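From the methods appendix. Each design record in this collection lists the tokenized structure first, followed by the designed amino acid sequence. Records were kept in a plain field format so they could be parsed without special tools. The example shown here is representative of the layout used throughout.

RECORD:
FOLD TOKENS (742 positions):
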């Protein structure tokens, strides 16, 4: 038979479907089940969003007598506004319909009135879904529809709208495309492949309503076979082939008045690392309590609740603290009827004036047959390794395990199955979680394409490494700072090592146990910065290095050694090194006053060498206004690394009669400068206003200063005699004049 479309019309009962202040809705399907008599059982879940009362959902019915059975559940409110103002709510109900087999597809439709008052002036709403009932040649089952939903009320300040990520998960691994089902609001755009909603210009304040259609397309060529034996061919992601399923998603966004600061975590809450990432697939087991924890922070606002879109009987426990942080724990116990259900769960952190981004996950309900196993994960600066304990996974066939990217192989020995991967290979995903960046991968079992049955257990073992966006991971002794890790989405994870060395070979570093490093004035200190990155071609640039008398880089008492890429201290020598290293030496100094320690803090940047506009390419900038904006170049942000302390002991030379004549010089920029050793272009005298002491012990210097001192004494004596003589003469003149006047 030709692939046709059967319409299952869902007629609302009079007065109930006409819901005022409709905020939107969503439909999600369980996998259709084919019965022994050849009929299909199709169960779908309907979530409806509204303002104050969401329990009055439509009552569905079939038309034309095609449904031989129709079973509706009671509708339960799943979440509501906790402030008592009745601003939003959500409810869920589900329906199971029995469909005759002489149909190739199933369509659902519902409509009602009225949308919440909105900028677009829409009133009537329509819910729609369409599912092909053919058996797929790749999965040997009926197609599964994309899974999606939203929270009931989305709010964003007018000047802070950047993006809204729409959940679009397909259980079969198909490609999901999103489009506007009706023309979208002005100055909004929807990315078809990522299902991300963005703005293209100024957006008007007020309520905007959206009607999206999510459609799935197989990524492989497949054949769909129907109950009467007919079949159709579907080309992989073919634009000429109809989608396997259509699901309409409706929601509203309230565009609020602008706020002074759009930084995430300032007034708008930002999710912290304990929170699942958007699009995560989580697992729940029938009869066992599933829990989801989310944590958010708003430093200048109070988080009073988390808005949640979830299944019936999901509970939430909210907890906040005085530091602007809040957390929620969602709990749900799946029943047998939920087995193999893909449950969408979305959530936002709420303040009085705004909310966080919306994050959504999918919870897959299974029996306790999925093997998790025991895994040990080791995280380094640029890669992670995982070792699975075979004893924790009896009966597992290691030949049917793969990483997210199956082209990366696993190895094994008698006790463990092992994998090693960088943060940019083997399907590793980078996820920004606000205060942390997560690198995630997974080991999964797989089946052969031509297998109809299997007796191998399903294996799903996720593993990850998480790093704060800036952290010192080595604090050996007295603030000895050596290893730093930073992460950025474009450069992945990269690290810096800042060390003190014994000599100019830069091969023998000072051990951690030697900190604080004891030095003498005028002694040459050798320091080196080494960058490490998984990217094969990067360049290190040291933009500045400054000294402070304590470990606070913001101390007002500081002295620049390098500034804006230019060497400022005249004793600095830069030694040859590779593109990812910076080695330099300078003579030891101390701050005037009662200070005996010095810390060095440098700001460093990684660049793509081929980028002509990067900070690395600019080099020394005596005029900082010439600094190009970072957005135009391939470079990381500026990161700060600290080394120290250097502690000063004794004198640089024995305290002999010869050296007792050494002179202390205050370097303020107006006194004679010491001739600098050879340095890179851009070297200049030290900045005026910063005072430092150095002991000069050269015999030549002593002789020069001693001679100058003697000459000065002689000149002062002659001048004193001259002025004394002249002064007496003037006194005599005044006395004579006075006597003459009298």
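DESIGN:
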């Amino acid at each position: 038979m030709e692939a046709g479309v059967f319409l299952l019309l869902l007629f609302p009962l009079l007065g109930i479907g006409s819901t005022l202040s409709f905020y939107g809705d969503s439909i999600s399907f369980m996998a259709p089940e084919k019965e022994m008599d050849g009929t299909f059982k199709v169960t779908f879940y309907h979530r409806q969003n509204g303002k104050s009362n969401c329990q009055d959902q439509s009552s569905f019915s079939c038309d034309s007598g095609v449904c031989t059975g129709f079973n509706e559940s009671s509708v339960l409110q799943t979440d509501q506004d906790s402030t008592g103002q009745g601003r939003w709510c959500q409810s869920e109900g589900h329906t199971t319909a029995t469909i005759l087999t002489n149909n190739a597809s199933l369509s659902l439709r519902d409509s009602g009135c009225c949308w919440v008052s909105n900028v677009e002036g829409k009133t009537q709403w329509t819910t729609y879904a369409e599912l092909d009932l053919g058996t797929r040649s790749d999965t040997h089952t009926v197609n599964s529809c994309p899974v999606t939903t939203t929270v009931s009320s989305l709010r964003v300040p007018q000047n802070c709208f950047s993006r809204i990520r729409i959940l679009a998960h397909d259980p079969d691994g198909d490609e999901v495309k999103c489009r506007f089902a009706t023309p979208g609001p002005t100055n909004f755009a929807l990315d078809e492949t990522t299902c991300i909603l963005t703005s293209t210009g100024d957006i008007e304040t007020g309520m905007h309503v959206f009607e999206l259609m999510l459609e799935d397309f197989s990524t492989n060529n497949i054949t769909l076979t129907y109950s009467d034996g007919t079949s159709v061919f579907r080309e992989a992601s073919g634009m000429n082939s109809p989608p396997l399923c259509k699901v309409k998603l409706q929601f509203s966004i309230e565009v609020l008045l602008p706020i002074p600061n759009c930084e995430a975590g300032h007034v708008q809450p930002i999710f912290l690392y304990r929170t699942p990432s958007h699009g995560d697939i989580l697992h729940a087991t029938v009869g066992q309590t599933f829990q989801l924890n989310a944590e958010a922070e708003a430093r200048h606002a109070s988080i009073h609740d988390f808005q949640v879109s979830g299944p019936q009987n999901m509970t939430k426990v909210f907890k906040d603290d005085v530091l602007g942080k809040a957390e929620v724990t969602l709990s749900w116990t799946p029943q047998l009827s939920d087995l193999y259900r893909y449950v969408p769960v979305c959530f936002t952190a709420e303040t009085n004036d705004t909310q966080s981004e919306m994050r959504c996950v999918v919870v897959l309900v299974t029996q306790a047959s999925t093997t998790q196993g025991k895994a040990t994960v080791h995280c380094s600066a640029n890669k992670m390794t995982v070792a699975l304990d075979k004893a924790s996974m009896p009966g597992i066939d290691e030949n049917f395990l793969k990483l997210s990217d199956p082209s990366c192989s696993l190895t094994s020995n008698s006790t463990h199955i092992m994998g090693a991967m960088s943060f940019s290979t083997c399907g590793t995903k980078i996820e920004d979680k606000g205060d942390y960046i997560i690198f995630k991968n997974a080991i999964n079992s797989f089946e052969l394409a031509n297998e109809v049955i299997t007796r191998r257990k399903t294996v799903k073992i996720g593993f990850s490494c998480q790093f704060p966006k800036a952290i010192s991971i080595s604090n050996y002794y007295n603030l000895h700072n050596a290893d730093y890790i930073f992460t950025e989405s474009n450069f992945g994870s990269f690290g810096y090592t800042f060390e003190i060395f014994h000599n100019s070979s830069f091969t023998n570093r000072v051990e951690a146990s030697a900190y604080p490093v004891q030095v003498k004035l005028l002694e040459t200190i050798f320091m080196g910065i080494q960058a490490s990155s998984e990217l094969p071609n990067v360049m290190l640039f040291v933009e500045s290095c400054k000294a402070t008398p304590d470990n606070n880089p913001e101390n007002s008492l500081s002295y620049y050694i390098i500034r804006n890429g230019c060497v400022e201290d005249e004793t600095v020598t830069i030694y040859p090194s590779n593109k990812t290293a910076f080695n330099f030496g300078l003579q030891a100094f101390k701050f005037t006053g009662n200070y005996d320690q010095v810390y060095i803090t440098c700001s460093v940047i990684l660049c793509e060498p081929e980028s002509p506009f990067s900070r690395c390419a600019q080099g020394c900038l005596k005029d900082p206004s010439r600094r190009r904006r970072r957005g135009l170049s391939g470079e990381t942000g500026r990161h700060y690394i600290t080394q120290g302390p250097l502690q000063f002991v004794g004198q640089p030379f024995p305290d002999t009669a010869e050296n007792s004549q050494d002179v202390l010089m205050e370097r303020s920029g107006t006194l004679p400068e010491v001739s600098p050793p050879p340095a890179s272009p851009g070297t200049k005298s030290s900045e005026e206003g910063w005072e430092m002491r150095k002991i000069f012990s050269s015999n030549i210097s002593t002789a020069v200063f001693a001679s100058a001192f003697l000459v000065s004494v002689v000149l002062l004596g002659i001048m004193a005699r001259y002025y004394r003589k002249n002064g007496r003469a003037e006194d005599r003149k005044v006395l004579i004049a006075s006597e003459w006047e009298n």
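APPENDIX NOTE: The mean pLDDT is 77.
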